[in-house]
Amino acid sequence: MSLGKHLFTKSTLNRGIAIPGLLFILGVTLISSFFPDLASSMLGRIQDWIFTNLNWVYVWSVTIFVFFLFFLIVSKYGSIVLGDSDSKPEYSFFSWISMLFAAGMGIGLMYFSVAEPVAHYADTAFAGHSEIRRAKDAQLYTFFHWGVHAWAIYGVVGLALAYFTYRYKLPLSLRSCFYPILKNRINGRAGDAIDTFALCSTFFGITTTLGFGVVQLNAGLVRIGLLADNSFRYQILLVIIIMAVSILSATSGVGKGIKFLSQFNIIAAIVLMLFVLIVGPTVFLLGSFSEGIGYYLNEFFSLTFDTHAYEPATQPWFFRWTILYWAWWISWAPYVGLFIAQISRGRTIREFVGAVLIVPTVFNFMWMTVFGNTATWLYRTSPDNQLGAMINKVEDLLFVVLDYFPFSGISSVLVIIVIFIFFVTSADSGILVMNSIATNNAAKSPKWQLIFWGALLGLMALVLLNAGGLQSLQTMTLITALPFSIIMLLFCYSLFKGLAIDDYYYNRQFSPSTHSWSGDLWKERLKRILSFKTQEGVNHFMRETVRPAFDELAAEFNQRGITATIQDMEVPLDMSLTIKHETIDDFTYGVRNEAKMISDVLVNEDNVPGAAENETFIPKTYFGDKRQGYNVEYFTKNEIIADILKQYERFLELSSEEKNEIFLDVRLRRKL
């Protein structure tokens, strides 16, 4: 057996995704490398036609994403947890924000924080505007391109993936987002095709970013004297170092390498931003930040829906910036969305959407104000106009701005460190995401697979950088954003459908026939209400009341040919009754001895006997579908039996309705 065949046999790669994905990646890379001019010309014409004739598709898609997510924040669906109802977040809020931010925006902030505002300010499309108007609009358009709209694109994919993965135990892959539409067909060729598309899009996006970003890193190292020039040999060295660190970080896991690097880099970026704010035109920057926020909010709806249809003179600028940005963010959405979903288990939808839309947007606005407005201020006020002379050398502009201020050598070194770590965090999270896609979210993959994806990224970036094919690959990536924007609209429909079913399922009330409650035992209930249970007292109740109810009911089910089993756990006492099924989930009704804290106010209340300590215990139910349980301490044996039958009647009624099968089709989840 050959080494390659042996590795593939031992790997967790899904052949239906990995093989066609790798063939397409290699094919496009080779064409872009050997025929860069032809590929660039042909793909450029296709992109220009799409941007000119179908720009409204991008505008309306992004608009729908924004308003859909805002709707979820204020809707009743906002409190739904991305996971079981009792799930807790895996990462602290700061770690979570740091990782999603580093993956989503990191290196772009360094590359465009100066270049974009200066480009807008100097663009001939706005030559007729006053100097002040051009400066304010430069900030406005930068806010627009890096604000809520960009993060809404990532948020839609990340939310759909996290919801269907953690709420319904489907694989962390794009195909899972189509379950309400395709149902079991997501396991066939349609699902493989969706994930193959995501794999290629992720690979192309990271490769082009790595290739173009290395040029900026190389330029910075030349300016501080660590490298002699911008030659390809130094770029090879930089790519090797970046990918080696990225692979090491990826193989150490999200909770270690990526988490640490993301937190460190956010802190370093904040230090750099504060430095420029302090040594730069501080008063102007603080004032322009306030004005910029107000201008953005005032123009929000106009910017959102604007296609420049009545302004043909500015349409080339609109295609070159806004539409290109929307296409670029959409093309990155599979990668960023998958990574955000991977780290967001346990968050509520409201928390997820609010954090993903607002927190990075506010930071981006602060960053773009400090660096971008400093650059336009220098452009307008400095006599040498060095920025204007170097406007086409995008990779140098940030370092040129820093040269105007004290300690430029130190600040340039800090910029290089931040750029380097943003590279690493983008690459290592990309490696994990690509491996997750290619394996259909396998639980554990051999480390050589992560090394393989990292090495392939670095190798393809160098091949394209040397051959001049990066522009073609970038154009190819932007073209694929058009069909993926349609796919993302289907994500919104699928997610809304799933949320509606979720709300119906978990808030379904008992049928009216189950609500009768006899008052014959009111004195016994009153006695129980006024008593606060010890752990041993609740254990006694469960052994003497709950267990006999389980035994009697299980015996009746088994006598009727329906398999019912009872499970016990002693510390803490926990017992459950399970009714077995073949094609739908098993029904489970359990009771556990659970501690409950009592407030000091109630302990000190003389008119409530028995509350001597701050802790009491209750027998609390739980269910197989993870719904919230309730206290059954006042139930008799027969009432426990009746309660089980009420829950079982509800379970069968829900199971009989076709729209609830996403919750109940156990065969699908076993197959996955």
From TrEMBL:
- Topology of this chain in the membrane: Multi-pass membrane protein
- Report the principal subcellular site: membrane
Question: Has UniProt tagged this entry with the keyword Secreted?
Answer: no
Ranges in coiled-coil conformation: none
Q: Which domain of life is it from?
A: Bacteria
A Pfam family in this protein? BCCT
Q: Which keywords, in A-to-Z order, does the entry hold?
A: Cell membrane, Membrane, Transmembrane, Transmembrane helix, Transport
Q: By its UniProt entry, which InterPro entries does this protein fall under? A: BCCT_transptr
What residues form the membrane-spanning segments?
12-35, 55-73, 93-114, 143-166, 193-214, 234-254, 266-297, 317-340, 352-370, 404-427, 448-470, 476-496
Query: Which cellular compartments is it found in?
Result: Cell membrane
Q: Which family does it belong to?
A: Belongs to the BCCT transporter (TC 2.A.15) family.
Protein name as it appears in the record: BCCT family transporter
